[in-house]
Automatic annotation (TrEMBL):
Family (UniProt): Belongs to the class-II aminoacyl-tRNA synthetase family. ProS type 3 subfamily.
UniProt xrefs under CDD domains: ProRS_anticodon_zinc, ProRS_core_arch_euk
Role played: Catalyzes the attachment of proline to tRNA(Pro) in a two-step reaction: proline is first activated by ATP to form Pro-AMP and then transferred to the acceptor end of tRNA(Pro).
Protein name: Proline--tRNA ligase
Domain notes: Consists of three domains: the N-terminal catalytic domain, the anticodon-binding domain and the C-terminal extension.
Complex and partners: Homodimer.
Pfam family, one: HGTP_anticodon
PROSITE patterns for the chain: AA_TRNA_LIGASE_II (PS50862)
Coiled coil: none
Intracellular or extracellular location(s): Cytoplasm
Organism: Hymenobacter armeniacus
Lineage, top ranks: Bacteria, Pseudomonadati, Bacteroidota, Cytophagia, Cytophagales
Length: 491
């Protein structure tokens, strides 16, 4: 392996970037601001995708696919949405290239191939989807319409970071239509719960469920619900959002339905999404100075077996290892036997540690003769010698224990980095000295929110759904406040 990673303490940002590259998750591409997701990183994303897709389908949603391009006139139909995304849009203006007469062998845009109407490369799909729903929805019998798509989107970013902020990223976006506001709000809350369950049960990532302030709301939504997670540097990361759209898009695209009484009404909408940002959250919430720490439920390889052998012994040893390998596979455990004869065991240990494989078995003929197996767990770096006779059941249980331990460690970190503050001076001091979630009163105005953001770079992450009402005074203006908000600096 190459030299050690920078530590989180030395340079958290450099640690993250180096880890993403060295663990084989992703790398920068030839296209500025875009990334290549490498096979190991994509395998984690596929596991996320598979689990979320199952959860969506269990709640009645179906997958579809809509075009990458959105005619500008459709995009600007819902004004708040168009205005909110305008600065991030990539736009197609021409449909053909031609050879450049002034530069042999080179190409230029054909000046005669200008599109009659520009096409926006989707930053989000509400416009193209709601223009389609107009044709799909005529009657209350067509509702609810519960659609999800897995897609790529483009939001033109100048300052990028692998997984966290790239010009193109992968995501899913749900878009649903309902007969009543109550049904649409219930859908919005249900999908927030799905995201929270996925984050906590599979990513081992504790999250705060809440609602965004009007300043932070999705452009074109009546309400935006979110899950917020805390990273190891004390910064927050928005890990998923679910939006109640009211009738805004239905009115913009004239999506109406005949109700049971025969009258015409506009439908009520939602949209909700998570993206490859979750990969960044997974890395930043759990990993250490030696590499990735992956929760077993999302690890592409859950167990790696490293044979320990002398020259000429490998084939015989692999035969003796095979029953262990097959026993693990029979339990649904993803296992890899690292039988490369070009690398020493120490190199393999370091490599799989960097890649965050939850459990490592080092097996030699002497161990097998003695009826034992050396087992190392990635989360605590603990090594133990376990009986060969029970090794499959022991490893299965160990994976469950590791999943729980990783979650509990992240939860404890969040609890020790969540502080209630009452004064603006204390608020600013804590942001610099002990960053994390700060629960503070503020007067609820966008002016005060903007002032706090400008002066401290901290934002209201959410008004937590579980946070009780509590009379107080705004830490900035001294005006009355009825509850505390979650503040943090964020990615």
């Amino acid at each position: 392996m190459s030299k050690k990673l920078p530590t989180r303490q030395e340079d958290y940002s450099l640690w993250y970037n180096e880890l993403v590259k060295r663990a084989g998750l992703a790398e920068n591409s030839a296209v500025r601001g875009c990334m290549v997701i490498k096979p190991y990183g994509y395998a984690i994303w596929e596991k996320m995708q598979r689990q979320l897709d199952d959860m969506f389908k269990r709640t009645g949603h179906e997958n579809a696919y809509f075009p990458l391009f959105v005619p500008k006139s459709l995009f600007e139909a819902e004004e708040k949405n168009a205005e909110g995304f305008a600065k991030e849009c990539a736009v197609v203006t021409h449909y053909r290239l031609q050879t450049d007469p002034d530069r042999p062998g080179k190409l230029r845009v054909d000046p005669n191939a200008k599109l009659e109407e520009e096409l926006v490369v989707r930053p989000t799909s509400e416009a193209i989807i709601w223009s389609t729903y107009k044709n799909w929805i005529q009657s209350y019998r067509d509702l609810p319409l519960l659609i999800n798509q897995w897609a790529n989107v483009v939001r033109w970013e100048m300052r990028t970071r692998l997984f966290l902020r790239t010009a193109e990223f992968l995501w899913q976006e749900g878009h649903t239509a309902h007969a009543t506001a109550e049904e649409a709000v219930a859908e919005t809350r249900q999908m927030l719960d799905v995201y929270a369950e996925f984050a906590e049960e599979h990513m081992a990532l504790p999250v705060v469920k809440g609602v965004k302030t009007p300043n932070e709301r999705f452009a074109g939504a009546e309400d935006t619900y979110c899950i917020e997670a805390l990273m190891q540097d004390g910064k927050a990361l928005q890990a998923g959002t679910s939006h109640f759209l009211g009738q805004n898009f239905a009115k913009a695209f004239d999506v109406q339905f005949a109700n049971k009484e025969g009258g015409l009404e506009h439908v009520w909408g939602t949209s909700w999404g998570v993206s490859t940002r979750l990969m960044g959250a997974l890395v930043m919430a759990h990993s250490d100075d030696e590499g990735l720490v992956l929760p077993p439920k999302l690890a592409p390889i859950q167990v790696v077996i490293v044979p320990i052998y002398k020259t000429g012994e490998l084939d015989a040893l692999l035969e003796r290892i095979r029953p262990i390998q097959q026993g693990l596979i029979a339990r649904g455990i993803a296992v890899k036997v690292d039988s490369r004869d070009t690398e020493r065991p120490g190199f393999k240990f370091a490599e799989w540690e960097m890649k965050g494989v939850p459990v490592r078995l080092a097996i030699g003929a002497r161990d097998l003769d003695a009826g034992t197996v050396e087992v190392a767990r990635r989360d605590t770096k603990e090594k133990m010698s376990l009986p060969l006779a029970d090794i499959v059941a022991s490893v299965d249980q160990l994976l469950t224990d590791i999943q729980t331990n990783i979650y509990n460690k992240a939860l404890k970190f969040r609890e020790t980095h969540t502080t209630r503050v009452d004064s603006y001076d204390e608020f600013k001091r804590m942001l610099d000295e002990e960053p994390g979630f700060l629960l503070a009163h503020y007067d609820g105005t966008s002016e005060t929110e903007e002032r706090i953001k400008e002066e401290t770079k901290a934002t209201v992450r959410c008004l937590a759904l579980a946070e009780p009402d509590e009379d107080g005074v705004c830490m900035v203006t001294g005006k009355p406040s009825v509850r505390r908000a979650y503040f943090a600096r964020a990615y």
